[in-house]
Write a structure and sequence with these properties.
The complex is a heterodimer of chains A (121) and B (110). Chain A is an all-beta fold and 121 residues long. Chain A has no helices and 11 strands. Classes of the chains: A mainly beta (121), B mainly beta (110).
C-alpha cells in the first residue's frame, strides 16, 4: 500500500531553517511527483510547491520563491522540503503528498501524516 | 493565479439528510477538480477527482459534478463519520503544477 512517512515535529527560532523529509513506499517513486502543502493552525490548505521525482523539475508557489527548496533522493525514495528564514507565520503542519505524472496527471492522491513546525523565539 | 471559492463556509445538516457543497473557480479548470475530506488531526483524504470520479474506497453516497468553473460535491445521506471539513482543489496547470485550494466548507451536525 502507498505510504508517505514524514519526519518528526520541529521547533525553530525565527531566522532559522527547517528541513522536512518524506519517505515513500508501496509504489515506484520515480513514476510520480511530490507536492508540499502546509496548514497553519485553524486555517486552510496552502500549496507550497512540487517536484518531479522522475526528473527533478520543480515549481514553487510565488510567495515562497527564494525561501523554499524541494529535492528528492531516488536511492532512498525520499523527498525533502527545506524552508529558510523562518518567521512566526510559517508555523504550520507541513504535508507531503503524491502527485500523478502519467495516470491522472497532476492529481494529488496520497498524503503523508504531516509534520508540525513551530517557529518561536 | 486561479482562485477557488467554496460556499457555504459552514453547513449544518442532520444525519441521514443530503448535503450539497459548492466550489467555483475564477477561470475554467476543465474537469481538473478534486475534493478532499479532512477530519481534525488528520491529513486530507482524496474523495473525488476529475470532478466526478470517486477515488478508491470512497462510498457511493459521495458524488461530484460540474466542469469549467462551477462544481458541486453531494453527500446523499449523511453518516456520522462524514462531518468534517471539505476542500476543493484545481490541478489544471499541467505540466507545470500550480495548485490552489478552496478555503474549505465545514460540515457540522445540525
Amino acid at each position: 500500500q502507498v505510504q508517505l512517512v514524514q519526519s518528526g515535529a520541529e521547533v525553530k527560532k525565527p531566522g532559522a531553517s527547517v528541513k522536512v523529509s518524506c519517505k515513500a513506499s508501496g509504489y515506484t517513486f520515480t513514476s510520480y511527483g511530490i507536492s508540499w502543502v502546509r496548514q497553519a493552525p485553524g486555517q486552510g490548505l496552502e500549496w507550497m510547491g512540487w517536484i518531479s521525482a522522475y526528473n527533478g523539475n520543480t515549481n514553487y508557489a510565488q510567495k515562497l520563491q527564494g525561501r523554499v527548496t524541494m529535492t528528492t533522493d531516488t536511492s532512498t525514495s525520499t523527498a525533502y522540503m527545506e524552508l529558510r528564514s523562518l518567521r512566526s507565520d510559517d508555523t504550520a503542519v507541513y504535508y507531503c503528498a503524491r502527485v500523478g505524472i502519467t495516470m491522472v496527471r497532476g492529481l494529488i492522491d496520497y498524503w503523508g501524516q504531516g509534520t508540525l513546525v513551530t517557529v518561536s523565539s | 493565479e486561479i482562485v477557488m471559492t467554496q460556499s457555504p463556509a459552514t453547513l449544518s445538516v442532520s444525519p441521514g439528510e443530503r448535503a450539497t457543497l459548492s466550489c467555483r473557480a475564477s477561470q475554467s479548470v476543465s474537469s481538473n477538480l478534486a475534493w478532499y475530506q479532512q477530519k481534525p488531526g488528520q491529513a486530507p483524504r482524496l474523495l473525488i477527482y476529475g470532478a466526478s470520479t470517486r477515488a478508491t474506497g470512497i462510498p457511493a453516497r459521495f458524488s461530484g459534478s460540474g466542469s469549467g468553473t462551477e462544481f458541486t460535491l453531494t453527500i446523499s445521506s449523511l453518516q456520522s463519520e462524514d462531518f468534517a471539513v471539505y476542500y476543493c482543489q484545481q490541478y489544471n496547470n499541467w505540466p507545470l503544477p500550480m495548485y490552489t485550494f478552496g478555503q474549505g466548507t465545514k460540515l457540522e451536525i445540525k
